[in-house]
Amino acid sequence: xxVIEQGHTQHRRSSLLxxxxxxxxxxxxxxxxxxxxxxxxxxxxxxxxxxLCRGGVAYTRVNEVWPNVYIGDExxxxxxxxxxxxxxxxxxxxxxxxxxxxxxxxxxxQDVNIEYYGVEADDVPTFDLSPFFYPAAEYIHDVLSRxxxxxxxxxxxxxxxxxxxxxAYLMIYHHMTLVEAIEQVKxxxxxxxxxxxxxxLRQLDGQLQEQRQSSSNEDSATCRKTxxxxxxxxxxxxxAFGSSGARI
Length: 248
Description:
This protein has helices at residues 2-53, 74-78, 80-86, 133-144, 161-173, 178-186, 195-241; strands spanning 62-66, 69-72, 90-93, 115-118, 151-154. With 248 residues, the chain is an alpha/beta fold. The chain has a five-stranded mixed beta sheet with strand order 1-2-5-3-4. Strand 1 (62-66) and strand 2 (69-72) form a beta hairpin. It is globular and about 80 Å long.
């Protein structure tokens, strides 16, 4: 009996040692993975910030960043008759509201026949601008579908909110990556979206790439299915008529 108890005790000790070894491994791995993911996210954010700060043009109140699209500041948006002289037909205000915003609105542009679209957004990293990405992109796309239209996209400084919405448009409708969209705009205007908006644009970039990859895989599967159907029809034809074309 004592031997059995001793063996039983040794078995329990061995089990406890194994469990103690397992627990740290299972507990530390997710934490390490999360730390690695956070470091990777911060590194990508720094890379985008360096891209935005590197080179580019000097800051001015308004720039044409795309055919018939201007990004500008509050003062540009308030000069209605100057906009009319520029040929601007539509205004997208990415800073609608009263706090750190541009409180113009549709009535402000009525006497110059400029159509207005407003997005109520705060220029702070914690503000979620992503729900406006697709509606604003669709509006920009609709405006530019007519070659006679010209669009001003603005916020207070024309550097963060307005730039973010236009970058999202380039990514959604022109299939650009975030880096490509930034490089496209910064050649013509100095833009600095806040880090929260950059994070949201990175998420949009990932979603769009996944969608396009999925669509590409579906197209490839459809092509393979079509090729297989054609091959089967050819085989049936050869079985029926032979290589000479005469019915067997």
